[in-house]
Specification:
It contains 14 helices and 13 strands. By secondary structure, it is of the alpha+beta class. Bound molecules: magnesium ion. Magnesium ion (MG) binds next to strand 1.
């Protein structure tokens, strides 16, 4: 049976701040970024649960946060520290499973299918992961456990904060049905409005809407995706970044940017480095993955599969294509990576060698 966990650290940046100054736990705190503009108090990235009681949320300008709570303590982000803590967390996670897809600095899917053989075992394995993280790092986290990535994510959201929740296959539809559509993964503000205009307010109502009608109103790919999600269906695999058979290079940009043109030469360069290493080992590659990490530390991985190749033009062309197609132009990019996998030994070269002898 397939069992996926979604681990999400609770109010991560603020929890890191509480870790080094425990007295902050009693206060309402918010970690802010983008304080460089004159007159701006910055934007809230994360806040602790004391602050949330006042209605403070991430993405909110800090000035609004202060209006909601006069005592709100603003702390300027310290990404370096959070990345260190994140590294500690994921070292622990990877000791429990090698199939880990990190989606941001504080969130990862963990495939534990080959570690457990029942829901009971899955729940106790996840509990063990959670307890180990909390005892070793002293940071709070939540874990959702279910049969696919979507359901694990939805279970985790319901478990937060400091929770653990299992949703079995047979419970999935019932679990989703009463949630407002806005809680469903993939439904943003605009989509929520469109669905409400179709008189769809709950996930259950979405699940029983005609698939064709949704595709007509939301576009084919989104319509189909949300229809499947509403029904608890998600066949996407956990993309393991640390697959042994892969070659990758990443680079943190000198300055966060939203300008594609700044990044393309870096992608070309990374591709060149990757190809050089592949050629040394006589590898052909089949899968090309581009990783984009934004300044809010969310990661985006996009892959394409081609016929086996060791050609640098193929790699550069597809890496740039993926980048241009999937880059989120609204968020400054912080880091970019290029990786090849699906590697095989180049038999053509071996063959030629044999003829020459
Ligand atoms: Mg989190």
């Amino acid at each position: 049976m397939k069992i996926i966990c979604l681990l999400d650290m609770d109010y991560f940046f603020a929890a890191c701040e509480e870790l080094r100054k425990p007295e902050l736990k009693e206060k309402s705190i918010a970690v802010v970024t983008d304080t460089s503009r004159e007159g701006s108090k910055g934007v809230i990235m994360t806040c602790n649960y004391n602050a949330r009681k006042f209605g403070i949320r991430s993405g909110m300008p800090a000035s609004i946060g202060l209006n909601l709570c006069k005592e709100l303590l603003l702390i300027k982000e310290d990404f370096k520290f959070y990345e260190e803590k994140s590294h500690e967390v994921f070292e622990i996670v990877r000791s429990f499973s090698s199939k880990v897809e990190q989606v941001s600095v504080d969130e990862a899917y963990i495939d534990i299918s080959d570690k457990v053989s029942s829901y009971e075992e899955a729940l106790s394995y996840a509990k063990h992961i959670k307890e180990t993280i909390t005892s070793k790092t002293k940071l709070p986290c939540s874990i959702g456990v279910s049969v696919n990535k979507l359901m694990a994510k939805m279970a985790c959201d319901a478990a937060k904060p400091n929770g653990l929740k299992l949703v079995k296959q047979e419970e999935a539809k019932e679990f989703l049905s009463k949630l407002p559509v806005s809680k469903l993964y993939g439904v943003g503000e605009k989509t929520k409005e469109r669905l409400e205009a179709m008189n769809i307010k709950t996930v259950g109502e979405l699940a029983s809407t005609n698939k064709m009608l949704l595709m007509e109103h939301l576009g084919n790919s989104m319509g189909l995706e949300l229809y499947n999600y509403a029904n608890g269906i998600d066949e996407s695999e956990v993309i393991t970044e640390y697959e042994t058979k892969s070659i990758g290079r990443e680079r943190t940009l000198k300055k966060d940017t939203t300008n594609e043109e700044d990044v393309i030469p870096i992608i070309k360069e990374l591709s060149k480095e990757v190809i050089e290493e592949a050629k040394k080992e006589e590898y052909l590659f089949k899968i090309i993955t581009v990783k984009m990490r934004y300044n809010d530390f969310s990661d985006h991985l996009k892959s394409k599969t081609i016929k086996p190749s060791n050609n640098i033009e193929d790699l550069q062309k597809i890496a740039i294509e993926l980048f241009k197609r999937y880059i989120n132009k609204e968020k400054p990019l912080r880091k970019v990576g290029v990786r090849i996998s699906g590697l095989s030994k180049s038999t053509k070269q071996k063959g030629l060698g044999m003829f020459m002898r």
